[in-house]
Amino acid sequence: MDEIEFMVEEQNIEDISAQLIRDHCLCVQCRDPLSGQRLRSVLELDPELVVTEIEEDEEGGVVTFILSDGHQVELSAETVEDITQELVPLNLRGEGAKVLWDAENAPTESFNWLEISIDNALMYEMLDQILTFGFAVVENLPTRDRAVLDLIKSFGYPRVTNYGDIFEVRIENDPNNLAFTNLPISPHTDNPYRDPVPTLQLLHCLETNVAGGNSGLVDGFRAAIVLRENDPESFDVLSNRLFHFEYLNPTTHLTNTAPIIKVDSMEEIVEIRWNDRSMQPPYNDVDIEEVYDALRAFAVIVNDPANMHEFRLEPGHCVIFDNTRLLHSRTGFESSGKRHLQGAYADLDSLISKWSILEDTLDS
Prior knowledge:
By secondary structure, the protein is of the alpha+beta class. The chain has helices at residues 2-10, 18-23, 77-84, 113-116, 120-133, 147-153, 220-230, 232-240, 288-302, 348-363; strands at 51-57, 62-67, 72-76, 111-112, 135-139, 167-169, 185-188, 200-208, 215-219, 243-249, 252-258, 261-263, 269-272, 308-311, 318-322, 326-330, 339-346. The strands form five sheets. Strands 4-5-15-8-17-6 form a six-stranded mixed sheet. Strand 12 and strand 13 (269-272) form a beta hairpin. Helix 1 packs parallel to helix 3 (77-84) and helix 7 (220-230) packs across helix 8.
């Protein structure tokens, strides 16, 4: 309790926000004991509320705040320390929670479906790698129809789009997307024309006997940071301007307008949208040449082979990646053979939920 006593002594009682103390109260009058949800509205917080007395139980590690309305709030010493230090919670979606990588530093270890499906510790390791590095490769996923959904359901829920709950990645006679051809595809994020975009993508290899068709991943957060460090003017253009994305076929018309590099209120990078195929010409204004310079500068970084982790998906392999951070690509391949992947989308919120539950379970 020494650290807590020091911090309390350093602050006057009137400098401690009584409203914040009351908002932390976990008693049955303030919080539902089962869900932990608030029972009191912010409208019920008295703006004139003050802390009148502080009692410390050194042995129990509890600090009791007595408020001017007579309410007593018991908080752990750890909670009080967090409050007095004015801590800002880590944004799991932001650059500060990520491990950045290039071609030389990308993780190469894969996970075995037969193991992660029954071992919580290994499942946690896989989810943690996706959260920190942005992707993971799973081996030995059965090469049967829709098996990719089994993997998704082990940690979350499929995200259904106009393609359905799964989509076939193979050569089509009348393709409505370049992914359904044998052409090479440059690094990009999927579905930037949606709001919100699917935050996770999975690609499961069912069959391949072609030369080429290698997969590639680029750390978009690292690319954006390189741009921010070396060309801050271009970074500002891509993070402050709105760009228009569109997808159109006879049955579907999707549009969205957003920055290419999204930052939060702390100026942390939290999302990348980059897709040459669906990005429309930028809006014309007096700075249009600066816009093209910025687009070109970012394109040079994401297309640099030194930033590309290239690998080959063999039958039974499935790659899972963060579609708001990583850009994925594919080399071209011969059209005479067979290459068949099944893709699906999911979302990071369910993955983070599973990761958090497993972390608590494994810690206990």
